[in-house]
């Protein structure tokens, strides 16, 4: 169950990052920016980070910190890459893919 908590924590981190990215992009051209439209992505990010913190705390009850943190970060990195690929909003180069592969190899080695 601890690994599920880590995956959910990583997913919350991805959701928060996507919300912050949307907040930074502002409103589409030609549309008036409402206060709620400007604040809502930030509130969503805060909520997602808070929920992720809770999931991470649950995982730490059963896993060593030196294993849990790299796994959670690896889940978040994989999620961000997935978002970038599926949304088309981010460019994924060979160098970035190699960097993600090295992170995955490092997490694998830490788990041994």
From TrEMBL:
Q: Name one GO cellular component term.
A: plasma membrane
- Do you know which InterPro entries this protein is assigned to? EmrE-like, Small_drug/metabolite_transptr
As one GO molecular function, the record gives: transmembrane transporter activity
Where in or outside the cell it occurs: the entry states: Cell membrane
**Transmembrane parts of this sequence:** 40-60, 67-86, 92-110
**Keywords linked to the UniProt accession:** Cell membrane, Membrane, Transmembrane, Transmembrane helix, Transport
Which top-rank group of organisms is this from? Answer: Bacteria
Q: What is its main location?
A: membrane
Q: Supply the PANTHER family for this chain.
A: MULTIDRUG TRANSPORTER EMRE, SMR FAMILY PROTON-DEPENDENT DRUG EFFLUX TRANSPORTER SUGE
Query: What is the protein name stated in its UniProt record?
Result: Ligand-binding protein SH3
**Organism the protein comes from:** Achromobacter agilis
């Amino acid at each position: 169950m601890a690994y599920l908590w880590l995956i959910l924590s990583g997913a919350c981190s991805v959701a928060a990052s996507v919300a912050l990215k949307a907040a930074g992009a502002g409103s589409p051209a030609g549309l008036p920016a409402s206060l709620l439209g400007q604040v809502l992505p930030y509130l969503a990010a805060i909520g997602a980070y808070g929920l992720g913190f809770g999931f991470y705390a649950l995982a730490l009850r059963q896993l060593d910190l030196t294993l849990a943190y790299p796994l959670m970060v690896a889940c978040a990195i994989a999620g961000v890459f997935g978002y970038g690929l599926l949304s088309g909003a981010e460019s994924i180069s060979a160098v970035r893919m190699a960097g993600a592969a090295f992170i995955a190899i490092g997490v694998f080695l830490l788990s041994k």
